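sanity check this:
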Amino acid sequence: MIEDFIDSALIIDDKESEIKELKLLLNKLEIFAKHYLPSELKQNGPVLKNRKIIFLDLYVEPDKSLIPNISIIRSILKKRIGKDFGTYGIILWTKHPEDIISFKEKIANDAQSYTLPLFIACIAKTKYLESGNYDDLMQDINLELKKNVAASFFIYWSSLVAKGKDQSITNIYSLIPNYINQELDLKFVLLKLAQNYTGIPEAKLIDYNLEHDAIKAFSDMLHGEIINRFNSSINLFENIDKIKFSGNPDEEKVIFAALNSALLLDFSNINQNIVIPGNVYKVIDDHSFFSLEDAPPSSTKIIIEVTPPCDFSIDKKAKRSRVLGGFYVSNKIAKTQIDKYGKENFYKELSNININDIKQQIIRFDYRYFGSLNEEDLKNPSKYKLIFRVKDKLFADILQKLSSHTARLGLSVIK
């Protein structure tokens, strides 16, 4: 398992003689290994490049006790590892497994300073030094990691992504066997994939980041490859009735809001000059029909562009967009205040979500505020400011529920 995850390793140890056999083993497994003395990293050492695993001597200064050594290590990590270091794990060399608890407790405070490790495992270096044999090291690491099922899952998932990425690229390149025209033909294939992603007509491509859609389309293909390659079980959800959150309900809601935001909203691939289904705008114009009068006083009025994708893909001559009005407001609002926005004329699936740095919001769309706007008005940030897009899954649900609401025929019956 761990062999598939790592292709490079970093060793931080104060005794070069004690890691010689470790480096030989890693090289034998075709894992590039770089060794640093702690003294090299304490002062003016280099910014470290990502290595998937760090073998770390817990007592980098043997004459000091545990806590001072942990402080030294934390200082090294703060100076040499940035926030964009990438995923990695730490193997602590120590004969005392209880030390790992203190280590974890201390570095847990460093989340804002550098990327924290995916896992921390404890291995007794003396076992290998005394026997002079490192052949069982990877097997021992795997046994330790099996105790951390969540870490095992992410290691396995990372391996699937790496293999799926290679296969996705191979599949695309294999479509163009002619090397003479390969570059041009591949650009053509990527163009069609990108255009197909949102169905944007060519007339609207000015200022539109089509490369972003190419990445998304390619990611969808990668997703298929990852799923197809899954053929293992690590018992992630064994004893499911015992899987509980360790924090309090408020902390749990903070996590859920962040997950909802990541899964459902897109804050990066937006452009005020391009009107696309799923765009969500803040209503700046107080005189707009979509400036809901009965929204909560502390709310922010918004609209979402809900033109069906099949209509959007045709360059409309009318240049008008279908929009649906709504608002977002802190979910700390009193229940009695928000309850009235839970009736059948509201889209009410989003009750705990982050909007950029605005944490834990409720979003409501009111089906009664359904109409159309000139595209030029939506491009005007003094009237409607683009703040995010909803992702496909959420857009489809909003559109389906809006369609169901507007299609209610009703029947007047004489009783």
